[in-house]
Structure formats: C-alpha cells, structure tokens
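Hi team,

As requested, here is the filled-out complex form for the biotin run. I kept the field names the same as last time so the parser does not choke. Let me know if anything looks off before we queue the next batch.

— J.
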Amino acid sequence: MRFEINRRMKTKKFGERVYYFERVTSTMDIARELAEKDEPEGTVVVAETQTTGRGRFQREWYSPPGGVYFSLILRPAFLAENVPKINFLAAVAVAETLKELYRLNVKTKWPNDILVGEKKICGILTEAGMEGKKLKWVILGIGINANFEIKKLGKTIIPATSLKEELKKEVSLEELLQRLFERLESNYLRVKKEGFAWLLKRWKTFSDTLGRNVKVQTSEGIFLGKALDINSDGALVLRLSNGKKKKILAGDCYHLRKKGG
Ligand code: BTN
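And here is what came back:
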C-alpha cells in the first residue's frame, strides 16, 4: 500500500517531500542522512515496516506492517535547550488528531507517550544534530500502533494497544498522516510565533501523569513521588516522600496504580 499523503494536504511544508519505503532499518537513519545533506524542513521519511525501529533509551520499537512509522525533518531556529519541548509539540498534535478523527479518549504520559486508557498507542523520539552550539536539525520520529492486533508486538514493557484494537476496525493511514501533518505544522508555526507556553498548557489538558504517583527512572537514579506539574522547560516536578520537590528533565516515567485502583 502506497501512501498518497501529499495529494490533498493543506500544509505548506510538512509532507511536501515524502520519501516512502516499504521496509527500512529505521526512518530515523534515513531522515538523519537526508538532514545532513541539507534536505529542507518538512521532509518526511515514511515506512511500512522497520527492521530495527528504535525507541527512547535505545529500546527496540517493533514495527509490524499496518503501523505508522515516520520521521520528520525540522530545522528550528530555537536554542538547543528547547529540543525536549518538541516532544510535547508532537504529543499534543498526535493526541489532538486521534481525538478528532476517532473520538478516542487519549491521554499523554510524561514526557512523550500517548495512551488510550492505560495503554500506549504511540511513541515519539527526537534526535538533534548540532553545529557548534547551533541546532542544525531535529528529527521527529513518530510510531503509531494503527492497523494491527496488539499480540503482533509480543511482550511490551508497558501495556500497549492499537487503533484496530480500540476501534475494532482498520483506519485510513493516509487520512491519519494528512491530519497529523496538518496539526504538527500548525502547532509548530504557532510555537515559532508565540513560544511554548500555550503548548505546555495544552499538553496538561491531555495529561494522565499529573496528580498521579509515579516512578521515574533517570540517569541519576529512580525517583518515586507525586507528579505535581511540568515547568516551563517541560521538566516533571515531583513531590518526593520526604516532602521535597524534584525537577526531572529527562527520564522514563511509570504510572503507579491510581489511588483506590
Ligand atoms: C518510544 O516510545 O520509545 C519512541 C518510539 C519512536 C518510534 C518511531 S517509529 C518512526 C521512527 N523510527 C524509529 O526507529 N523510531 C521512531
């Protein structure tokens, strides 16, 4: 199945150039090569399957046919410290798109997972290339469990679901990609104009993390506490059991059971 995504798309740049593959190692690898060769912002690498799809913390991202796997090249004029917030941009765009198209009750898990119920349906990965202190490119990789049954994934670290599983039918991947690129582009343009504050606020409206007891694995160790907020950097603010607050900029977050759950 070929993706004819740029036919009816209302975007200016995103998805204007699409490199489409039936099978790749990882769309991140191809997008990175293209970005190094001055490919313009908005170019997308899409694949039907990936043989070595990757997730955060070098985990494997199993990519069976029927899923959505793409990497988008960005060339933001932001400071490098803003790169983590591109995850929030992507998470909001995916959440809005899945909600609008399929009326799903989507939630975000800090920093950049999309859940339906307590189960993960989408993962987001960003990689950045620098030239000295300047940001040269950012590759935004998004994987959505779409038209396959979840047993195709085998054992997952956290429970997973797919659109097919939730909707009991297959969806049009072209429509999903089109709508997602439109959302990604409009949110990106707004961030460029107005900054990230509105976006972080929007992310909070989808958040399943805030207010919950969580366990966060970081390079400094594991922290347990109540997720109070995210700050203007996108860092998670925890209330630890000793009453102190702890800000965490990067880590792997696990939601603990809801109170009484
Ligand atoms: C995560 O949740 O750990 C992030 C998963 C990101 C997966 C996407 S699929 C498209 C792109 N290519 C990859 O190899 N990874 C990202």
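Two things worth flagging: Helices lie at 27-36, 83-102, 163-167, 173-194, 197-206. Residues 173-194 form the longest helix (22 residues).

Thanks,
J.
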